[in-house]
Amino acid sequence: VDLVPTWVTARWVKVLSREHPTLAFHASISRSFGKGSLIQLLRQFTRLHSDKRQISVGLIGYPNTGKSSIINTLRQKKVCNVAPMPGETKVWQYITMTRRIYLIDCPGIVQFSSSDTDTDIVLKGSIRTQSLLSPEDYIPEILSRVRKEYIQRQYQIDKWDDAHDFLSELATITGKLNKGGEPNLHVISKMVINDWQRGRLPHYRAPPEFSEPLPKQASSEQTDAATEKATVGADAEDETMEGASDNEEVESKRITLAELNINQIFSKIPVVAEYLPVDLEGDKDLKALEKIQGEEAAQKSSKKAAGKRKREAEVADTSDVEADWDEVFESA
């Protein structure tokens, strides 16, 4: 999440949370984001499975997406090897997080999807660039996904006609030439793909319903939250179709997960990618919304604390009243 604007992260979390509990996380031993929220979620899982001595949590996903880095962040030290290339983790590795929680670092998997093209798989970082036979085939897609201003800033190239012209200009600037002065498109293409995979070319893809940084989404935020609760409730009701006793347990667990009180302040994410102001317009609205939500939460917390103090005072007043011992002995 440190490579995209915070408003993009906030909206993706909201969209993905409609199907599964979703958290934003930035892996870093010294400056992480989302660590406390993830630990809180894992502890909730241990409560849901209180009948078990311990639980094992597997980190599963595409190669080169930071699974090992998450474990290092949670342990606050390097316990898993990491590398900016796919295939570093080759076997399962069990890591003890707490007395009841074990983490499993798994090798990356590439899930088959009929909608994924070869270009999508390469740009997701699932294949090492050294293994690509024709890396220049994937450059047009990179140029279409990244703003022209970011390409110009990274490579100091003002203009180009197409991907071939861009690669030729870059090869000339960097000196990647074959004998006779011909540009080495193969080598220079791998360099561009490496820059893409390592976050040197700022880019993001917003959720379909939020393709632009639209301002003031407060009302839609509330609507989506209600929709999410309704969806979770409907899913829980569907479980009653098969066996009563088992489904009651599943339903109670799903409701508990849906009601997790985990609040992330996305504006605190340490974004390292340098974006233009036009891509950061949504961040201002996000900060304003989070400020309002913070004030509302503080007011609720204050009212709750005042109510608790009032109840404690009432109990104390009741206990301070002297008992009428004559009535006590008469009743006895």
Question: What does this protein structure show overall?
Answer:
- This protein is mainly alpha-helical and 332 residues long.
- It is built from twelve helices and three strands; from the N terminus they run H-H-E-H-E-E-H-H-H-H-H-H-H-H-H.
- It has helices spanning 6-16, 35-48, 67-75, 118-123, 139-145, 148-155, 163-174, 185-197, 218-238, 244-258, 281-320, 325-331; strands spanning 55-59, 93-96, 101-105.
- The chain has a three-stranded mixed sheet.
- The protein is globular, with a radius of gyration of 27 Å.
- 17% of the residues are buried.
Produce a short descriptive summary:
By secondary structure, the protein is mostly helical.
**Biggest sheet descriptor:** 3 strands, mixed
Strand arrangement within the widest β-sheet reads 1-3-2
The share of residues in helices is: 40-55%
Number of helices: 12
Q: Segments where pLDDT lies below 50 for 5+ residues?
A: 214-258
Amino- and carboxy-terminal Cα gap: 70 Å
- Overall mean pLDDT score? 78
Shape field: globular
What is the number of E strands?
3
Kindly provide the radius of gyration, computed on alpha-carbon positions and rounded to a whole number of angstroms: 27 Å
